[in-house]
Structure formats: C-alpha cells, structure tokens
Amino acid sequence: MTFDSRPPGSSRRARRTVLTIAALSGALLVTACSPSSSGSTGAGAGGDGKVTLTVWSWRVEDEAAYKKIFDTYEKAHPTVNVDFKAFKATEYNKILATGLAGSSGPDVPQVRSYGQLQGTVASKSLLPLDGKVDLSGWDENVVASAKGKEDGKTYSVPLARQTVQMFYNQGLFDKFGITAPTTWEQFIAGNDKLMAAGVTPIAVGAKDDWTLPIVHEVLAGSRFGGKAFQPEVLAGKKSFTDPDWVASVKVVGDLEKYMPKNVTGVAQTDAQTLFSAEKAAMIPGGSFDLSVLQKANPGMKIGIFQVPPAPGSPSGSSATTAGWADGNFAVSARSKHPNEATELVKWMTSKEFGQMVNDDIKQISAVPGVEPTDPLLKQMSDNYTNSGSPYLLLTDFRYGAPSGTDLLGKGLQQMLLGSKDATGVSQDLDTGVKAWFKPSA
Fold this sequence. Notes:
The protein is an alpha/beta fold. 39% of the residues lie in helices and 12% in strands. It folds into 2 domains: 10-161 and 326-386, 3-Layer(aba) Sandwich (D-Maltodextrin-Binding Protein, domain 2), CATH 3.40.190; 163-323 and 391-433, Periplasmic binding protein-like II (D-Maltodextrin-Binding Protein, domain 2), CATH 3.40.190. The chain is globular, with a radius of gyration of 21 Å.
C-alpha cells in the first residue's frame, strides 16, 4: 500500500524505502515461475499429492514472516502447500503483469489498491470474490481499496491499514528537553532547539518525489481540513486551488529549513539512515516503516505523534492521521486451483490471519477487531480510529493519469528546488487531475 503496502507512493513506490535494508539482509530477487514449479509432478500437485499454491508479493523484507504465517495455514490445511515468493518492489508490477497474462503467474497475487488495482481488474486477470469472502463490517475506506471502480465487484482482500505520522527519537527529545508537541508553537520550538544543537530536526528524502505527498499529509493534513475536505472536493464544491489547500502546500516549504541541507538531493534511504543513526530527530513516514526503523537501530526508543494544526487551519481542525488500505491479496483468473486459492484468500479475512499480520509483519491488520500488540502500531491504529482522515490523493485521485500523488510529488519537489511556489504546485495538481476526474455532484 503501501506497504504503496508499500502505502504507499506510495505508488506503492513507497515500498522502495525498504530496498536498502532488504539488500543488506541478503534478500535475493526470485525469478518468476509457475504455480507447479516447486517440486510438483503435475499441475500444482506435489510429489506428496498436495496442491501447491504460489503466492507472490513485493515485500521481500517480510519473507520470513509470511513463511511463518503460511506454515500455520498448512498445518490446518494438510493437503495444501503454500509457496511464497517475494520480488523487488520496483520490479514487481512488471513481473506480476507478465505472470498474470500467461501461465507463469501466481495463484494468489499481492495486488495494489484503489486506482492502481483498476488496470489489473480491467485485464480480467482476477476472479471476482463477491459471495466468496465477507467484508461486511469492514471500514468502508478499506473495502473501497479492493473493488473495481466500474463494476463495483470485490477483487481482493485488504491486507493492512496504513497510516502516516511523525516518528521521533525519544532519546534525543529527552536530551534536549523536548516533548511530543500538542500545539504548533511547541512543534516549531522543538525544531528550533534541535537545529540550534546541530541536530537535523526532520529527515526528509525529497530526491524520491513519491515520499513528498506523505510528508505533506504528515505536516499539513490538518491545514487543508483533513477528513472534512474529502467530500467537498469529490463533490466539486472545492478544488485543489482552495486557499486552505494552497496554504497546506506552503507549510511544507516553510518547514524546509528544518530538513536536511539540499533536501532534493537526499534519497529516502538516506533520510532513514539519518534517523536511524540518530543524526535526525524526526522522520515523517508510514506505519509500514516501523519494522524497518526498529530493525535499523534496535536500541533506539521510537515514539510517534500527530503534527498539530498549523496556524490558519479551518475551524474545528485538529491533528489527524491519514490512512488507506494496501497490500491486498487476490485470486488469479488463470490459477489451476481456484477453489484452494479462494479458500486461502478467504482465510486472510480471519482474525487469526489478522493477528499474525499485526504481530509478525508489523502492519496494522485490515481485519476488524484485531488489536496490534506492538504499542506503537496500536497507537497508530487508535489515532486513525479516533481522528483519522483518508490519504486523499491516494484513495480518490489515483483512478486516472496523471495521478494526484504523482502530480503533488513532482510539484513539491519543484517547490523545494525553488522553481515553483505553493500556488503553482496546487494549480498544476488541480489542472492535472481534472483531465480525468469528474465530481460526483
């Protein structure tokens, strides 16, 4: 998602944030192979007579966790073997499209969500799951990620709810007498104190423009109105040239002084390294980043907070946590074992699976009623439940080209380079999405 999960640009290009970590851990790119290739003697039938289901994912860093999870499934389904294969996130879309179009694809592919799911649906590569899986009672924003836009059918089961927030180093905050801010004034004062001490306040990797819409949501979601802005812009009552939206874009530019020098030359992996090496005190990121940050510096005490509303925020605005669904699993229309594949995907709606997603993959499960055991994941989940808002450009403005996240990412990068101001960035975003977006009213 995103997880882009990963959220997601997140195009789930947000998954790129973990490639350096995955490489360091010795993860290998696995080449595509057929569902029956794992020692099978027939069409998906192993030498032991079991059916082999191949599951593909872009989450190389979660390979060990998924194998543990599918071991649990196999114990309860002794006639099934699950063969999990992970690919580089940056290459996954192409590999998956090729696999699903021929006979070499997976039985159960991990697929993108919302707008990025639509091309896969249009290619007739996935089996509709209506009447086969039950998503009633699930968050509507989450369920929308799994549906075809044109026919309204369900084509996947959402894996995780992703959220974005500010991570911070509790040790550095304590060292300099800073507490997680609850007002904008406290936030700015903390940034000033860190900068005066020679510590980079906010690690941002603006070289990778897909990260910048996430940065915008974390720093300024409240400034444009958060959740309240969504129905207004979808109905055509407001646009991305609205003064509050423009002001929210300007917030990112105003905070550039707290980011690394020459921020547009800093990659996201570099930003994560700055944070993990304790040279930067904060980093805006997704829930999908938590396990990466924890593994990079196990001794660091990490906290999270919602950035307080900037001055001028719409009346009633409060700190918000933007979220979306990502990393969904589907059933290939070319699977030789559609019944067994559907049964596996159906199991992914269970609380048993959801709890393992929380505990082993360190993602916030999309399954209702499942509580994370990691205290930070639980805080993220609670923040979204209590004061959540949709990651608007991902949930609603990725159904056409150019997408909202691509436009804002490139625009913010240009703003940080000094070639465009907040008004220009917002105007280009508005013009770009209007090439395909039609208001509901």
